[in-house]
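Researcher: Please generate the 3D structure of the following complex. Treat every line as part of one assembly.
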Amino acid sequence: MAKKGWDEFEIGAMLRSFDGKIDDIAGTRQEDRDYSENSSYTASVADWRLIKPIFNKDYCIDCQFCWVYCPDVSIISRDKKMIGIDMDHCKGCGICVEVCPTNPKSLLMFPEQADEEAEIASWPTKDEEK
Amino acid sequence: MAFDKMELRDIEVWDGNFAAAQALRQCQIDVVAAYPITPSTPIVEGYAKFLADNYIEGEFVMVESEHAAMSGCIGAAAAGGRVATATSSQGFALMVETLYQASGMRLPIVLNVVNRALASPLNVNGDHSDMYLGRDSGWIQIDAYCPQDAYDLNFIAFRVSEDHDIRLPAMVHQDGFMTSHTAQGVTTISDDAAYNFVGDYKPMNDMLDFEHPVTHGVQTEEDWHFEHKARQHNDLMTKVLPKIEEVFKDFEKLSGRRYNIVEEYETKDADVCVVCLGSSVETAREVAGEMREKGIKAGVVGIRVIRPFPFAQIRDALKDIKAIAALDRSSPNGAPGMLFNEIAGSLFNTDTKALLSGYVYGLGGRDLTKAQLVDLFTELQANVDAGKVTTPLQQFIGVRGPKLSYL
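Model: Done. Output below.
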C-alpha cells in the first residue's frame, strides 16, 4: 500500500472492495471486476502455504467437487471445466485433494518447492482395489 | 408520514426515562436493539410502546443480553440507520466489549445510560460507577442533571454524533432513580421542530449501499491500528467540543434553554467551589446559594461533557477559585477518584493556587444531604483561611461508623 499519514484514510477502519460504483457484480468474472488495492482479492496469502496442490488435467473428470469445497475460492473453473488453481489465495489446506473422486486423484499435495512438471510426469498410478 | 403525531402540552410531567423515550420517538429512531435492566427499562419500554402505537416507523429488536443489544445496534448503524439503546450498570459492563467496537468503527449510536452502582454487592440504585467504567471507550459522554436535560441532551447527542466530521457514538447519562424515576415538569418541543433540529439521517459508507460495497470492522495490526486510534483521539480532542458548543447554540435558538460544556454556578467571585456530576449538581447549587447568605462565597461547577474532558473550560472556570472539592460518586478502588485526577491534571502547570481535595459520596444511591454539603463548604472555607489543605485529600462522606479518610 502507498504510504499514507494518520489522517489520510477514511474514518472507521473501513475498506472498499471495489473502486467506484459497481453493478451486476454477480454476473462479472473475478478477473474483470474493479477490485480496489485493499480488497481480499488483491491481497496475496500465498506465503501462508507450506504444501501446495498440483492439478493433473489427464485424470480430471470436471466434477467440480474441488470448486464447491474450496474454502478460499481458489479453484478456477470456467464453463464447468476445471482450469487450475489460484496460487495467490490457496492456503494449502488439502481439502480439494480430499474430495477429489478420481482414481488416481487428479489433485495431490506436494511441498511448496516441488516442480510442477516433474511431479505431473511422475504422477502415481491407479490404486488397486483391495 | 405514515406514522401518527403526538400532541404534547407545553409542559409535561415526565420522569427522566420517559423524557428520553419521548426524545427517541421524536428523533424517529430506525432501530432499537435493547435488553431491559433497572433503572433504564422504561426508556426502551416507552420506545416499544410508541412503536406499537404507530408513532414511529422503526424496528425493535429483542435480544438475549446487553452484549447482543449493542452488537445489534452496531450492525444496524453500519447498515445505515439511526440507532439508539439504553442500559445501566451490569448491562453496561457487559456492553463494554462492544462499546470499543462501536467507537472504533465510528458509528453514531446514542446510548442512554442510566447510572447505577456496579455489583458486588448487587445494588439497583444510582451512583456513577458505570459512567466511570465507560470513560476510556472512545464515546462522547454527556451528563444530564434532571429529566429536562435527559430530554434535550438526546437531541444534542444525535446532532453531534451523526455529524459526518465526527461520527462518534455518544452516551447520555442520567442518575438512576434520582433523575430517571423522579417526575418533574419538562418543557417539550413539538414533534416537527424536534425532528427538524436533529434532521434526516444521512448515512455514510453504509453497508446497504449496494453500489459501493464496504467492509466494516476490519482487522489492523501494528501497521495501522495506531493511526486509526490516533485519528479517533484527534477527532475527539479537536472536533467534538467545538461541535457540541455549536449545537448548544442552535438548541438555545430552538428552545431558549442554554447548555454549556461546563455549567458554572456563581463561580465568578467564588472562593470555594465544588465540582460534581449528575443530580448532585442541583443540590450543590441550592446549598451554595444558602452558603452565600452565611458569608461563604461558594460556587458550583457541573461538568456537562465528561468525555472528551473539557480541560480548557475547566481551567477557565476554576482559575480564580481558592479551594476546590472534587466530588466523586464512584468507589475509587485504590485511587484518588476520576474527577480528582482529571481536575488535578487540568490545573497542573497553570498559575492557580487552588487547594484541591477529593470527596467520595453517595455510593449505591446513598443520598447526598444538604447538611453534608454545608459541612463540605465549611471545610473548604477553612482550607482557604489556613492557606493549606487542612483535611486529608480523600474523604468519604455519608458512610457509617468512624470517619474514613486517606492520603
